[in-house]
Amino acid sequence: MAKFNFDEIVDRRGSDSEKWDGGRAAGVLPMWVADMDFRTAPCVVEAVARRAAHGVFGYEHVPDSYYEAVVDWFNRRHGWLMRREWMIYTSGVVPAVSAVIKAMTSPGDKVLVQTPVYNCFFSSIRNNGCLTAVNKLVYAGGTYTVDFDDFERKAADPAVKVFLLCNPHNPAGRVWTPGELRRMGDICLRHGVFVVADEIHCDLVMPGYKYTPFASLSDGFLMASATCTAPTKTFNIAGLQIANITVADEDVRRRVDRAVNINEVCDVGVFGVTALQAAYNHGGEWLDELLAYLHGNYECLKSFFAANLPQIPVTKLEGTYLVWLDCAAIGKPSSVIVDELLSEKKLWLNGGDMYGEHDHPFVRMNIACPRSVMLKGLGLFADYVASCVNG
Question: Which of helix, strand or coil describes residue 111?
Answer without folding.
Answer: strand
